[in-house]
Amino acid sequence: MNTEKVRCLIIGSGPAGFTAAIYTSRANLSPVLYEGIEPGGQLTTTTEIENFPGYPEGISGQAMMEDLKRQALRFGADVRRGTITKAELGSRPFRITVDNDKVIEAESVIISTGATAKYLGLESEMRYRGAGVSACATCDGFFYRKKVVAVVGGGDTACEEATYLASLCRKVYMIVRKDYLRASKAMQQRVNDTENIEVLYGCNTQEILGDEEGVTGARLVRNDGTTFTIDIAGFFLAIGHHPNSELFAGQLELDQEGYIKTVPGTSKTNIEGVFAAGDVKDPHYRQAITAAGSGCIAALDCERFLLANNA
Predict the structure, then answer these.
(1) Both 13 and 58 in a single domain?
(2) Residue 217: helix, strand or coil by DSSP?
(3) Which end of the chain has fewer CB atoms surrounding its CB within 10 Å, N or C?
(4) Band of residue 44 on the pLDDT scale cut at 50, 70, 90
(5) Statement to judge: residues 102 and 126 lie in one domain
(6) Does 107 lie in the same domain as 23?
(7) pLDDT digits (tens, 9 = 90+) for 211-257
(8) What is the C-alpha separation between 45 and 229, in angstroms, rounded?
(9) Does residue 179 sit in the same domain as residue 103?
(10) Entry pTM
(11) Is 296 tagged catalytic?
C-alpha cells in the first residue's frame, strides 16, 4: 500500500478544517487536508449565511466555503479529495488510511469531521432542504421573520429553537411525538410562557408540503391515526445531531453522544498530537464562526506540539 509522510494532517473541510489549514500553512507546517465525503461540510447545504463576520451582504454557504478553500490554497495547504477509511492512533506517527488504498503517516492530526443533523427520513424533507427545511434556527430563523414555522422535537434543543424562533416569527408550532415535552422544567416553562408557540402533542410528520418556491405546509398524523395539515413557511429539525466520530471510537475519548472530548480551553484530545475542532467536539454552539475559531485553536495547539517535539 502506498505510504506518505506528513507533519500535519487535517481531516475534514468545513470552517474548522479550512481555518486550521490556513493557520498551519502560514506556520510552514505543510498541512495536507482531506475534504471527506461532503467537501465544505454542512454549510454547503445552507442557502444564505448572514451572521458570519466579514460578509455584510450575506453569502451562500457554498461560496463561503470556496473562499475559505482558496485562502488555504493561497498559503500552500495541500487540499485533496478523499475520505479517511481507517485511523490508527496508537503511536506516532499516526497511520491514517485514505479510500482504503493509501496510508498517511502523520506526526499530528487535526480532526474536523463535523456533525450531521438528524433528519426524519422523509423524501419531501430532502426535497425542500435549504428551501424551507433547516436544522439550525439560529442560522436560518432570520429569513422567517413574521412568518409561521414549525419545530420538530420535544427536548431542550427543540424548546430553545422554538423560543428563539418565537422572537422572530408570527407563530411557532412544536411537533412533539410524545404526549409530553422531554425538556427540562425550566425550558418547558419558557415554552408555556411564550404566547405564540403552540405545542402539537402526540403528532408525527407524514409529509412536508411545498411548491417550486419552497415549503408551504406539513401534513401531520396523530397517534390515533387521524391526519391534518398546518400552513407553514419553515420546517426546523431539532431532534439532535450525530457527530462524525465513528472512526475514532475506542481510541479517542468520546462523550455519551459521541462528541470528541478535549481538554477544556484547548483542542487537545486524550492522545498527544491529536487535536479536535469544530462540530465534532461541540455539542452546544454548532455555528460556522465558533467552528472557525476552534480550527484556529487546533492549529496553534498543533504548531506548539510539533515545535516542542521537534517533529
Answers:
(1) yes
(2) strand
(3) N
(4) low
(5) no
(6) yes
(7) 999 999 999 999 999 999 999 999 999 988 889 999 999 999 999 99
(8) 27
(9) no
(10) 0.79
(11) no
Which residue in the list 8, 101, 136, 156 is annotated as catalytic?
136
Q: Which of 78, 101, 139, 211 is catalytic?
A: 139
- For residue 125, CA distances in Å to 11, 58, 202, 222, 234 come to 29, 25, 20, 19, 11
Active-site residue, from 8, 78, 140, 231: 140
- 169 is a catalytic site residue: no
DSSP 35-69: --SSTTGGGGG-S-B-SSTT-TT-B-HHHHHHHHH
Spell out the long-range contacts of 211-220 with Cβ–Cβ below 8 A and sequence spacing 24 or more.
Answer: 213/131, 214/128, 214/131, 214/132, 215/128, 215/131, 215/132, 215/133, 216/132, 218/150, 218/175, 220/175
Q: How far apart are CA 89 and CA 106, in angstroms?
A: 10
Looking at the fold, whether 103 and 191 belong to one and the same domain comes out as: no
Q: What are the grid coordinates assigned to 188, written together? A: 418547558
Cβ neighbours of 178 (radius 10 Å): 11
Q: Where in the sequence is the domain holding 47, given as residue range(s)?
A: 2-116+241-308
Q: What is the CATH number of the domain that holds 165?
A: 3.50.50.60
Among this protein's residues, is 203 annotated catalytic? no
